[in-house]
Design goal:
mainly beta; about 5% helix; binds CU-O-CU linkage; binds copper (II) ion
């Protein structure tokens, strides 16, 4: 099915939490500090509900936080406290991960840090938000199925001082794999052939849960567009028509020198985020995903009112969150992470649960990829650091596919790409690697705990691309 067919998703409705204030542009916001239950917890309740994904199609069962996909946008001020009660209404266990937050390890919501939350039970997450920026939340168990069924939402950490005269617009991007009748494709879950290729690539593109939404925005204000790629596996190449955006943040963290994205094509791997500022003006803006074929228009921003005087003033960097930058890498031997496997990768076999096995046995066990010759999660971490150590990791992509490497709990500073100094480096928690690319990153291991490091193409993760690092206390 081509991605370009007309599409409509009407999933977002029936908001159950009374605490939800209608967001200006369709995603209801839960302002954590302002709207909470008696004990101060914001509830995220998962329910299975029939929804219409495609206009004219059949209803299909989605899994929703508070009856919506995306789930409610959670907002908190920098240094504020997030208190969320996850209530599991699925027939299977789940847990909630806070993607990109430099979080207290116990609250990270990964299988390294907590037990699964069984059906019918709940778990309380309480953590501080040290960095302003654009983050998101999603399950970290059976992620390929759970995220694809609609479980994800934005977590926005606001700057201490809100930006002047800037309208904030979150654009949660997803692609779903649906059948001709509009129902979610179930056969492809666990499909090893798909996992060994690009992962579960969808054929139904939504922004904020809708197909080609029209979003209203004032002409007389700058816009801050917060792009979040929540797709299982698709690398998004977002492009704006009708405006030249200025890139101000990647993966939540401000970049040092904002730059116009005139000729440069942004690539956002699954899990990645980009914040763009658009100047005042009355032209309609089209958000497109530039795939291999024609750009696919995925959302429209209609500007209303008067644009005011020509907007030519510089766009200032966002306030720095002050992440500790690794300075001296002399004498530090990088830890290599060699990525292997997948279709056309020529991998002969790998270690599986401590045993050397051939490709055939790997595939029978749902595995197609390996890190340093090991498929799936290891007992031992990739690396162990003392608190405050400078960590240096070199990713070596020996596969024929791009990957989006995600580290929990800390952000990575790219140092070298294919042996050359990295150009315009920016903090990343989700780092794209092209086939045959080698990227060396560094960071200060200043967050104690057990942190997952995996490909965020959820089918690749499930089929072997998963490890972890340990930061001792
Ligand atoms: Cu967004 Cu380990 O996940
Ligand atoms: Cu991958």
């Amino acid at each position: 099915m081509p991605l370009t067919r007309r599409q409509m998703l009407t999933g977002a409705s029936a908001v159950s939490a009374a605490a939800v204030a209608a967001g200006t542009f369709g995603i209801p916001h839960l302002h954590i500090t302002a709207h909470a239950a008696d004990d101060g917890f914001t509830e995220l309740k998962i329910e299975k509900m029939p929804r219409l994904l495609m206009e004219g199609g059949k209803e299909t069962e989605l899994w929703l936080y508070n009856g919506m996909s995306p789930g409610p946008e959670l907002r908190v001020k920098r240094h504020g406290e997030v208190k969320v009660r996850l209530i599991n209404g699925l027939d299977e266990p789940t847990m909630l991960h806070w993607h990109g937050i430099r979080i207290d390890n116990a609250m990270d919501g990964s299988p390294l840090t907590q037990n699964p939350v069984p059906p019918g039970e709940s778990f309380d997450y309480v953590f501080g938000a040290p960095d302003a920026g654009t983050y998101w939340y999603h399950p970290h168990l059976g992620s390929s199925r759970q995220v694809e069924h609609g479980l994800y939402g934005a977590l926005i950490v606001e700057e201490e001082e809100l930006l002047d005269d800037v309208e904030d617009i979150t654009l949660v991007m997803d692609d779903w794999l649906i059948n001709d009748d509009g129902t979610l494709n179930q056969e492809a879950f666990g499909d090893i052939r798909m996992a060994a290729h690009g992962g579960r690539l969808g054929n139904w593109f939504t922004v904020n849960g809708k197909s080609r939404p029209r979003i209203a925005a004032p002409a007389g204000k700058r816009l801050r567009l917060r792009l979040i790629n929540c797709a299982n596996a698709r690398v998004m190449f977002p492009q704006l028509k009708g405006a030249v955006p200025v890139l101000v943040a990647l993966d939540g963290q401000p970049i040092e020198r904002p730059r116009e994205l005139a000729g440069e094509q942004l690539a956002l791997g699954p899990g990645g985020r980009a914040d763009l500022i658009v100047r005042r003006g009355s032209d309609e803006i089209t958000l497109a995903h530039v795939g291999r074929a024609e750009p696919l228009e995925v959302a429209y921003i209609e500007r209303t009112g008067e644009p005011g005087e020509a907007d030519t003033a510089d766009i200032a960097p966002l306030p720095d969150n002050g992440l500790p930058k690794p300075v001296n890498l002399d004498g530090i031997k990088p830890v290599e992470l060699v990525m292997e496997g997948g279709a056309m990768g020529g991998m002969q076999g790998a270690k599986l649960r401590g045993r050397d096995v051939g490709m055939r046995e790997l595939v029978e066990n749902g595995m197609a990829w390996a890190f340093n010759g090991v498929a799936g999660m290891t007992e031992e971490p990739l690396a162990s650091y003392k608190l405050g150590d400078t960590a240096v990791i070199e990713f070596v992509n020996k596969t024929a596919w791009p990957h989006a490497m995600h580290l929990h709990g800390m952000h990575m500073w790219p140092v070298e790409v294919n042996g050359e100094p990295a150009q315009d480096p920016a903090w990343r928690d989700t780092l794209m690697l092209d086939p045959d690319q080698r990227i060396k990153v560094a960071f200060i291991a200043d967050n104690p705990g057990k942190w997952m490091l995996h490909c965020h193409m959820l089918e690749h993760q499930e089929a072997g691309m998963m490890t972890w690092v340990d930061v001792e206390t």
